[in-house]
Amino acid sequence: MKKFKAESKKLLDLVVNSIYTNREIFLRELISNASDAIDKRKFMSLTDSSLDADFCIELKADKAARTLTVIDNGVGMTDKELEDNLGVIAASGTEAFKKARGEDGGKSDEELIGQFGVGFYASFMVARRVEVISRKAGADKAFMWSSDGESGFEISGAERAEAGTSVKLYLKDDGDEDYSQYLEPHTLSALVKKYSDYIRYPVKTEMPKTEGGNTTYETKTLNSMTPVWKKLKSELGEDELDKFYMQTYHDYRAPLFTVSTRVEGAVDYTAILFVPQEPSYDYYTKDYKRGLSLYCNGVLIMDKCAELVPEYLGFVRGVVDTPDLALNISRETLQHDRRLRTIAAGLEKKLLAELEKLQKSDREKYDKIFGAFAKAIKFGAYENFGANKDKLKDLLMYYSDAQKKLVTFKEYAEKLDKEEPVLYACGETADKIGMLPQLEGARERGKDVLYFVDPVDEFVARMLESYDGHKFENIASAADDKSAETTEVQKAVLERMEKQLGGKAIVRATDKLKSYPVCLAAKGEVSLEMERLMDAMGGGVKAERILQVNPTHPVISGLETADESRFADTVTVLYNEALIAEGYKTEPEFLSALNRLIAASGK
Ligand code: ADP
Fold first, then answer.
1. What does the alpha-carbon distance between residue 392 and residue 359 come to, in Å, rounded to a whole number?
2. Are the C-beta atoms of residues 275 and 316 closer than 8 Å to each other?
3. pTM greater than 0.85 (yes/no)
């Protein structure tokens, strides 16, 4: 007996013991595996006709033995593949499952199972023993994998007339649940309709037929099989695309947005694109594989064809069917295929156009999409030296200080005079930005400010340079700060402050501030946010810091008469106040300086 890998074992316990509802999804998982296996064999048969067969999936219930067997004539598995594929659950999948389970209390386990490649293990929710007999296409030997789902599995020689796989479930005894129902043809039929209707191969079973008191059995196909994209719009039910999406991608939530398109031109194709409710759990990892399923007249050629979607739209799922590609085209050739690039460009254009339309027609929905995928879209505008920036700039949205909602650059710029800049402020969160000292001045001057909360935002602005003739300007940049008028006395105070700071920052008067005495700004190309981002990446590019001072503020005018030590402490406190407002850590000397000032003021 071979033991399950420790992680697999844990997951197995989880699957078997913690899921008390919705056990019925085991059938969906097994049928989906069978369908994938047939896809693989069908693809191989394109170049090796000896592998061709009358493809189908069969459900066989044996009431006397209490077994249900799912039989396919797909690609099959060797003994080694049985061990590798069914003995282990990829560690990454297991980890992700546990993580998502811990993090997302909203999702139930059964909703998560399908998404983490633990499909086959669902068998043990209903079976006390599972036997998988498989014969690899082209091989002459068959093998059996068997397990009670407890500690391990065994592999032995077996007999199977043809290539394919049979998964035999020895159902548990009824008790906590009615497992016998999975032996009833009508239950099986209902489950296939519910979960596996779009499987492209016939799922068959023996259905009873009663006529004049006599019951006979006949083989019936339970699923409708027609791929949704082959149906005409008029034949498509209201939520049929949603259902297709949910079944295909094991997502328990309907997609946020669906675009279907049929193009006849240089290349003919039909495509359905889905924007999910949120990025998949591994979207921001290197394990994530983007791509659309590519079909040639209903036959799957490639499962995740990355060339069909640009990287920044990697979260989009969907299918493309074209009659124009040769079925037996190799993956390598496919990647350089001109027709594929034509389709990809067409789809990108279509999706972006539909998103822009949605932005106008259903803002609430668009906000949701943007909320879920803003990072990806922004990154798209920035990457490749801004190659896509013009395509994407109107899809971007930022929180507006004046309008208190997300607005596009266009909406913001409409309110500007000619040559007036697009003002923005950076910070970790909208709340923190909202409290920046510099904002007060902007508000008083009646200027709207956009909030940049993603580190990439400022880079995108740099890439764009301007929007519709309006340059981007960080309100925390001292670039064209028209310095406030200062009296001789004020000037002397500021000079003394700068000397006191000892090179940490230069000091300039500003009229941007109102109730705050100081704020921190940067001069030149590198902003404070960029400095921070570079620091996080181990960079070391330094921003040129300016302590902007409101010379009329009582704290500042109070300095005119301050003695040496109060002056030093006040400058320390002010500089640290400016650091805090910008989200920096304070200096070690800050608290003692503050305490001395408080103590002195109490005297
Ligand atoms: P997933 O299907 O998400 O990869 P499973 O645990 O359901 O995870 O299956 C693990 C692997 O076992 C599959 O990726 C496939 O290689 C193999 N497998 C499962 N069922 C079959 C089958 N009926 N025919 C051939 N291979 C199969």
1. 13
2. yes
3. no
What whole-number percentage of the chain has pLDDT above 90? 57
Q: Is 310 in the pocket of ligand 1 (CB under 6 A)?
A: no
What whole-number distance in Å separates Cα of residue 38 and Cα of residue 31? 10
Residue 102 pLDDT: 60
pLDDT digits (tens, 9 = 90+) for 207-254: 998 888 888 999 999 998 888 888 777 777 778 899 889 888 878 899
Neighbours of 44 (CB within 10 A): 16
Find the length of the chain. 603
Q: How far is residue 218 from each of residues 56, 70, 185, 186, 206, measured CA to CA in Å?
A: 16, 17, 11, 13, 5
Residue whose CA lies nearest to ligand 1 atom number 4: 117
85 lines ligand 1 (CB under 6 A): yes
| Residues whose CB falls within 8 Å of the CB of residue 198, separated by 6 or more in sequence, listed in order | 223, 224, 225, 226, 227, 228, 244, 247, 248
Place of tokens 């190659």: 387
pLDDT at residue number 117: 46
Give distance in angstroms: CA of 545 to centre of ligand 1.
58
Token couple for 551: 């010379």
* pLDDT per position as a tens digit, 443-463: 988 999 999 998 889 889 988
Cα gap 361→355, rounded to integer Å: 10
Please say if the pLDDT value at position 415 is more than 60: yes
Q: Say whether 52 sits in a helix, a strand or coil.
A: coil
